[in-house]
Design brief:
The chain is built from 16 helices and seven strands. With 413 residues, the chain is an alpha+beta fold. Strand 3 and strand 4 form a beta hairpin.
Length: 413
């Protein structure tokens, strides 16, 4: 019996084939230190699961999303801010022009003179680019699914315009505010992460995890949306957080017990089943809680300029990515380069290198044979004066160094 054809969530045929798309779940495997993000597509034949990200290292999706991973758009003019990609995807979704009167269907007028399928294919093209680069934003996908599904039912003649206008209102409203909130709060979350996890090390301040946790709990307490789930939902759709405080953006759907502890304490319950992700801020909470729990911080590699996770107590300044076209990771590359730099910082070594380069230039021009004994003599002279230099009192070393320079000149005269 042939296996099921692999689902492609960016093809219109998938929207025709499946009736529903579940929310997106975030699942961690602590034993293998991996994470996954997935949703389930449902039709009369059953369910099929699609993974937006599978077996990625824990918090890697989170770091990529907020610009602290491999795809570091902050430091590269060739890369694209994920919020710009999201904006492009939403451009091809009909806009709600009158929230107070859904019956007038004004947002359907944008399809006059053009194919609905063509527009939706453009939307899916940008959505594919967005979620392919930043799987953590896949929590937005069910919102897109609901809207595109309704529009295809209209396009295929399975729903009247009047009915689809009515049925589109809630999915459009949900997607519009969810995507809008992600764009609005994105930079605020990055700023918070930089201030708490990155900047202290740059300023030579070592913040222990309990101090970071205390700071984060105070932050959550300060901006927490008090009330039950209904009031949180009401705040979300009214976008009232921006009215309360310009820094309140991270606290959408904050836990009932404000702070990171709630996420850590309930990890066991969703490690095996996954936790449903609804908002950008919810995912931000989870990533921050994991960093705190694991006692990790984020640093910018002083060689390649990209970010990496490290134990807060570590003094590591370089990451383990392969540096450019070399065979070595940044930390190993710097270790080797540092050893080389230290070699040439020594005055005897530095003079030996100059003398050797002068001799090599003569060999290359054919003025001195390749098997000249001068090479060995230069090395012998170097070793002799290196020993003398090291066993001479510091105030008298300059005389040894100058004598060595004259000996090199005499040898190569």
């Amino acid at each position: 019996m042939p296996g099921k054809k692999r689902i492609n969530p960016y093809k219109l045929e998938t929207f025709r084939q499946y009736d529903e798309c579940s929310i997106v779940y975030y699942l961690t495997d602590e034993k293998n230190h991996t994470e996954a993000m997935f949703c389930d597509f449902t039709n009369s034949s059953g369910n099929q699961r699609y993974y937006f990200s599978k077996n990625a290292p824990i918090t890697s999706n989170w770091m990529e999303l907020f610009g602290y991973g491999e795809a570091d758009w902050i430091d590269s003019s060739e890369s694209v801010n994920p919020m710009e990609l999201l904006h492009d995807a939403v451009l091809y979704v009909p806009k709600i022009k009158s929230l107070d009167d859904p019956e007038n269907g004004s947002y359907m007028k944008e399809f006059k003179g053009e194919s609905i399928e063509e527009t939706l294919n453009s939307c899916l093209y940008y959505l594919n680019a967005l979620l392919g680069a930043y799987p953590a934003l896949s929590f937005l996908y069910p919102g897109f699914f609901g809207v595109i599904k309704e529009l295809l039912l209209f396009s295929d003649g399975k729903k009247s315009q009047k009915q689809v206008i009515k049925d589109l209102y809630n999915p459009l409203l949900y997607l519009s505010y969810n995507a809008g909130a992600a764009v609005e709060y994105y930079d605020r979350i990055r700023t918070y992460v930089y201030d708490v996890f990155i900047m202290p090390f740059e300023k030579n301040i070592m913040l222990a995890p309990d101090k970071v946790a205390e700071h984060y709990k105070n932050y959550c307490n300060l901006y927490y949306n008090e009330g039950d789930e209904a009031s949180i939902k009401r705040d979300f759709f009214s976008n009232s957080t921006s009215e309360r405080s310009p820094n309140a953006g991270m606290i959408e759907q904050a836990p009932a017990d404000p702070g990171w502890e709630s996420y850590i304490e309930t990890r066991n319950s969703y490690d095996t089943e996954g936790i449903g992700i609804y908002t950008l801020n919810q995912f931000a909470h989870i990533g921050i809680a994991q960093l705190i729990r694991d006692g990790r911080s984020i640093r910018k590699c002083k060689l390649c300029g990209k970010y990496f996770k490290v134990k807060y107590s570590s003094s590591q300044e370089y990451c383990t990515r392969i540096y450019k076209d070399s065979k070595f990771a940044c930390n190993e590359y710097m270790s080797r380069r540092s050893a080389k730099d230290r070699f040439f910082e020594h005055p005897i070594h530095a003079e030996y290198n100059k003398a050797y380069n002068r001799l090599y230039a003569r060999i290359r021009r054919g003025k001195v044979p390749k098997d000249t004994p001068l090479t060995a003599k230069l090395k012998e002279l170097h070793d002799q004066y290196y020993e003398r230099y090291e066993h001479t009192h510091k105030k008298d070393r300059e005389a040894v160094w100058k004598e060595y320079i004259e000996k090199n000149k005499e040898l190569l005269a």
